[in-house]
Description:
Blueprint: E1 2-11, H1 13-28, H2 37-47, H3 56-69, E2 74-78, H4 90-94, E3 100-105, E4 108-114, E5 122-126, E6 129-130, E7 160-166, E8 180-186, E9 196-206, E10 211-224, E11 229-248, E12 252-254, E13 264-267, E14 276-277, H5 302-309, E15 311-313, E16 317-339, E17 342-363, E18 377-385, E19 390-424, E20 429-463, E21 471-476, E22 510-512, E23 515-531, E24 536-553, E25 555-556, H6 572-580, E26 586-591, E27 594-599, H7 601-608, E28 615-616, E29 619-620, E30 623-624, E31 635-654, E32 657-680, E33 683-707, E34 710-721, H8 725-728, E35 732-735, E36 740-743, E37 751-765, E38 768-791, E39 812-836, E40 847-866, E41 871-877, E42 884-893, E43 897-906, E44 909-913, E45 921-924, E46 927-937, E47 942-949, E48 956-963, E49 969-978, E50 983-991
Parallel strand pairs: 1-33, 5-8, 13-18, 32-35, 36-39
Antiparallel strand pairs: 2-7, 3-4, 5-6, 7-8, 9-10, 9-50, 10-11, 11-16, 12-15, 13-14, 16-17, 17-19, 18-19, 19-20, 20-21, 20-22, 20-23, 23-24, 24-31, 25-30, 26-27, 28-29, 31-32, 32-33, 33-34, 34-37, 35-36, 37-38, 38-39, 39-40, 40-41, 40-42, 42-43, 43-46, 44-45, 45-48, 46-47, 47-50, 48-49
Amino acid sequence: MKYTYNKKATHGIRGGLVLSSSILALAVSGVSIAPAFAQDAETAKKDESVVVVTGFRSSVRSAIAAKKLENDIVDVIKAEDIGKFPDSNLAESLQRIPGVAIDKEGGEGKTITVRGLGPDFTRVRLNGLEAIATTGGRDAIGGANRGRGFDFNVFASELFNSLTVRKSLSAEVEEGSLGATVDLRTARPFDYKGFTMAGSLQGGYNDLSDKTSERGTFMVSNRWLDGRLGGLLSVAYSTKDIYQEGPNSGRWQNAYSAGNAGRFQSYSTDGGNTFNAIAPCTSNATTKVCNTTEASNPVVTGEGLKLSQALFPRFLRNSQFITNSERLGITGSLQFKLNDRNTLTLDVLHSVYNADRTEYNLEPISFSRNGTGLPQTDIYNYTIDAARNVITKASFNDVDIRSEMRFDKLQTTFDQINFQYDAQITDKLSGSLLIGSSKSFLDNPEQTTFTYESYNVKGYSYDLTDMSNPVVNWGTSSTGCRIDQACYWTYAAASSSTASTNASGDASLIRLRPLTVENTYDTGSLNFKYDFNDTFRFKFGGSYKQFAFNTTEMRRYTTTPLTSNEAAAPGSAIVTEINGNLANYSKSVTYGGITYLVPDLDKIRDKFNYNCNCTNSWGQFTVNDLNSNARPNNNSAEEADTALYLQTDYKTHLLNIPVRGNVGVRWVDTTQSTTGYLAKGSNIGTITIKRSYDDVLPAFNMTLEPIDNLLVRVAAAKVMSRPTLSSLAPGGSISTGGQTLSIGNPYLDPIRAKTYDLSVEYYPNKDTMIAVSVFHKKIDTWIQSLVRTIPYSETGYDLSLLDGTGQTGDTVYTVTQPVNTPGGNLTGYEVAINQPFTFLPGVLNKTGVLLNYTHVDSKINYAFSSSASTTVYREYNLLGMSPNSYNATLYYEGNKLSGRVSYSHRDGYISVLNPGSSADFWSKNDTDSIDAQISYKYGPRLTFVLEGQNLTDEPVASTITYNTAQNNVASDLLFDNAYAGRQIFFGFRFKF
Length: 992
């Protein structure tokens, strides 16, 4: 079955035009005409002579010059030499820009946040074309990227020679950014005078993995036909073995949480000699506590009630992640100067990022169990933190332990090609045509989880007095064995072909979850400039951009497409084979000095061929995208954006003060078509919903120079950021019997805001800059996930879905989906100082410092509960916003010896908000990191380099804050700590 719905919306056309015309009138009034753009033309001619930047200080100088010349508020980073970016990772270079903070995965930067706004609100352009690069990730950090954010670890930094972060917008810059627009530019042959060749070779070592790695780059460029034809090729290749390890709580819970009979059977107050029973209870449906006098639930009081209501980890586990990665990047560029007025440029970019990730977990799985077999566990020698009502230390009997191995095969392939034609049509009119296409494809063809179990273990204990470093004892099995012995473990079948548990507890897993994520962009733009006179330059043009998103996921199933069986062992044959030879299908893993057995997936795969998507002699290994667990992550969307803009650049004097800038307006029409699976009972079909809306986005930038080299910049704009296409997916499931609907929301409006910027910048010389910026964003709307009770007619779905039920559009449904909510304000300031110490004596005059500090404050109105009649809102910090972040780089640059050390800090922030789930907030902790680099020039063509990354071995750590029905109010409880180790690189660079 297929459902189609169309909706048209407009936003702010009249108001936007009035505002833009008012700004234009303000800019034009009261100015005196002075020569300006003619001087720009002379400057451009001078800039045609190629100068290759060499050295860190020279790259900083070049970046300062580029920032100073801009009309908008931007920050720039330049390559410090041919094929050499200042940092080995693009994200880590970006964090040296004020307002930019990064998140790391596997010890290297992956995503960025700009002025408190996360990756989904930052647009990235490669050689002028918007693009998305997607990789997989650990479940603890959100898994595969299905958003609009850009994963910077896909590319080697050596492929690029400049990046620009645009914090204020002008009408000519494409819409879609709430935080910033990041421009990445690869090298081109016209960047160099003639034949140029450079490269590097480095070896690496990580102290956690105790593994070596290698990294190499090569670039060659040349020009022919009197410099009118140029070609360039660059290649970057690297391998790296990444280890991450640390504790993970699996979230926290009460022994008596809704829907289970309790997880503790009895307790002891005398060290485990005698035990007192705790009555089982399914809990009151309203109060969710078990001290009621209901006939079906006995009264639970005293110590039993105290234990039943205290928080403890769902499955405190040791987690290890071993990622063997390989990254290849290739760029190519051809440029042809037809004559003095016409230039053709062709750029291609290809990148492949391969990663085989193995994950090991050792965990007490029965603590997270609901239903069958409860209660079982006995608790003794416990300590309860009364202030937070948390069991921080305890010993247990009859605990079920699980050993888990997961393997992911990941490959991200990124390709982009773009063609640019620049023409000087007349002396005053010039134009540029840009056409291109990009595709990012994340393929995760194997994502397999396999587990062993040990039931009714005695003497399991944990000590979470120091939550960052838990102490765990894994006890002895019912057979008297330890976790490093095969007799401790079993591979357990389910009690039936569709059940996920057996008589003892949870069945063993063979979980199959292959997935893909594909993003494509096809873009065309035509832009013109007309120099009206020496004061005004008019810019106008338009663009068309088609964005397509498609994500798939497969899960194991059994008899019908509706039944998922991913949590059940596949059959008696495989169970018998493994249990009869368990030692042969296992290997030893050591964590924190403790050795234990895990399933050996290489041997299991070879024997049982579980990747066949078939039923073979060992069991059923079929997967599809229609079963209940798979459907939500199978959706697609197309988005077409059509934009026109008109902008006036001006450069003149106002009351004898030099002033320059731009004013303009951009109109954009967004058309979206989203498709997903919708299941109603046993019927599964696709639903497609189409929608369009348009925006008018005025923008204004002005730069004044009241005294020489002191710039005062003012900017204002209306901006918008579109929802992620995965959140727009209309698929999900509807239960007409239970009157529930769990879906995406194809009717989400974009997040719209008004932004205001003020920046004061002082450039006393070409190497020095001091800048202070203040910014404010009035965010009109926000997007969050919410559970609502509303009439079916307000869901936007076709009434035909209710056929045969007797229900109407007035029937109230419980709907879980992302929704638009009121926004809030974001305000902050930045301070940046780039200062060489040339005034100091001796060798100190070859040193310098780069400093930046950013403070952001933002409160967003989040919906915490909603019904047909009312919605309750509360104010909390913006998700992903660190109130404070700062970076410092101290450098020395001599004739031969150079070095620098960089320190970065980012405050903790709220990463996930789950209103009403008890786990209300998920937060990332503060992070601090130190990197260093030393280089030595051995002649003009050869340089030796020593680099150190993550020298303090800072973990990526996250916590959870709880506010439960059992009156547990606890913050900063462990969720995940992951250490990645220190990384050292040594090698050399050469150039000709």
